[in-house]
Design goal:
The protein is mostly beta strands. The chain is 4% helix and 45% strand.
């Protein structure tokens, strides 16, 4: 019995000793990695594997324990035995961290290192603060510059890095089509920019000065990539969502950006105020009817017309009502009133449109129209402006005997962008339309036609 007890104790001690043997000894080696050198870590316990917590800072060979720097910083190295027991070790990669490019127009870039120390440079094109590592471009005679970092205490020798020194792009001119078309709210324009410097391709950004907050806002949706040439004229386009002062900046392929709010500008004029269009007497289906607006603005010209001509004009006086009579020469058509700023040329339509039909309707004191003729509801396009989803509704004499009416959407250059047949019931339509996403913001004409007769409505697209 005593012999069996002794054998059991010996076996227990052996098992305990074997368990303790699975835990590794402390890791030894340098805790600082000085590039471009490598560091070899070791552990007296054999059979384990090496790993690192952050593979973006350093890498380690799982078998040899050789550590190689990558981007700089602090990482945790782990040595794990087959039984799962492990020890850790902190190692610092003293590599320089920061942007690879410094741009002449700024902003300044800041370099850093995981160790304390001082910064310096021998390059004439940049300056760097000795303690902060802030790099500022002072010239661009050379494409690169060398910066140095000296750790303190001197656990490593001086470390150097080479960064690019780039001439930021700049806009020397910006020419829009304002010579033939005024720059107005919600209008789509084209423009040409001439720029220099930087590395192609470029990205163009629009900035708008918002008087409401006295700050600048960017229009990310109006950002585009231009060409592959390093300098010269580039074409672009933008839809002007708000009135105000627009600035442009150029970002090149390396991220260098032109100075903000210093280049050419575009002044976008506001549209005139939209007032409600009314008519008197009720019905107004004859040539001598009077179209009325619920208000007017000084300096604004108001014109009554159809899709081809204006038949009457008047100047706003600021009064709450203004009358625009049509003369006896008008034809059977739909008429609207457009407000035009006499200085900027910006104009906008008043709604709804009015059907004047001198040949097919006569005045009636009680009804305003012939008792034998069905009263028509003016064609409308609502809402307007809209985000591409709108409804066409109302009636017209040219649709009385039609089963369908062709709806064509035409841009301001006269190009057809969409055509669709709409069902007609008793001379009336009521149809919702969703424009495709690739139709850009701007002003369009919606032409409704059957045979040789037609009516045109205006559409303002503002997604």
């Amino acid at each position: 019995m005593r012999k069996l007890q002794l054998l059991f104790i010996v076996a227990l001690l052996a098992m305990t000793s074997s368990a303790f043997a699975q835990c590794p000894a402390p890791i030894t080696g340098s805790s600082v990695l000085c590039p471009p050198s490598t560091v070899t870590l070791s552990d007296d316990s054999l059979g384990g594997t090496w790993s690192v917590s952050d593979g973006s800072n350093v890498s380690i060979d799982a078998v040899t324990g050789v550590v190689t720097g990558i981007t700089g910083g602090i990482a945790v190295v782990t040595y794990t035995m087959p039984g799962g027991c492990y020890v850790t070790f902190n190692i610092t990669d003293a590599a320089i961290i920061g942007s690879a490019t410094a741009c002449s127009a700024g902003p300044a870039i800041t370099m850093s290192d995981a160790l304390p120390g001082t910064w310096s440079t021998t390059s004439a094109d940049i300056s760097i603060t000795s303690l902060g590592g802030v790099v500022t471009v002072t010239g661009t005679s050379m494409p690169t510059a060398t910066i140095s970092f000296s750790p303190s205490p001197a656990v490593c020798s001086t470390i150097t890095d080479v960064i690019n020194v780039e001439l930021s792009p700049s806009i020397s001119s910006l020419v829009s089509d304002a010579a033939s078309n005024p720059l107005c709210e919600h209008s789509a324009i084209s423009f040409t920019t001439t720029m220099s410097g930087g590395v192609a391709p470029y990205t163009y950004n629009w900035w708008w000065y918002n008087t409401g907050c006295s700050c600048y806002s960017t229009f990310a949706s109006n950002t585009g990539v231009f060409g592959t040439s390093s300098i010269g004229a580039q074409l672009g386009g933008i839809t002007l969502a708000e009135a105000g002062t627009y600035y442009g900046d150029i970002v090149d392929n390396l991220g260098c950006i032109s100075l903000l709010y210093t280049g050419p500008t575009m002044i976008v004029n506001p549209d005139p105020t939209v007032y409600t269009l009314d008519y008197s007497p009720g019905g107004c289906h004859y040539a001598s009817c009077t179209l009325q607006l619920s208000g007017t603005d000084y300096g604004i010209s108001y014109a009554c017309g159809n899709s081809t001509e204006y038949v009457a004009t008047t100047t706003g006086t600021g009064s709450p009502w203004i009358s625009i009579p049509t003369d006896g020469s008008v034809t059977d058509d739909w008429y609207f009133v457009v407000a035009i700023n006499t200085v900027t040329g910006c104009g906008i339509d008043m709604y709804p449109s009015i059907h004047v039909c001198p040949t097919c309707r006569t005045a009636n004191p009680s009804l305003g129209v012939s008792a034998t003729t069905q009263t028509s509801v003016p064609l409308t396009l609502l809402p307007n402006p809209n985000n591409g989803n709108f409804t066409l509704s109302g009636s017209a004499d040219f649709m009385l005997d039609a089963q369908t009416v062709k709806a064509e959407i035409i841009d301001i250059t006269g190009h057809l962008v969409l055509s669709q047949d709409l069902p007609v019931t008793d001379g009336s339509i009521s149809q919702s339309i969703q424009l495709p996403c690739d139709i850009v913001n701007g002003m369009y004409f919606v032409k409704l036609s059957t045979g040789t007769q037609s009516q045109v409505l205006r559409l303002s697209l503002n997604r």
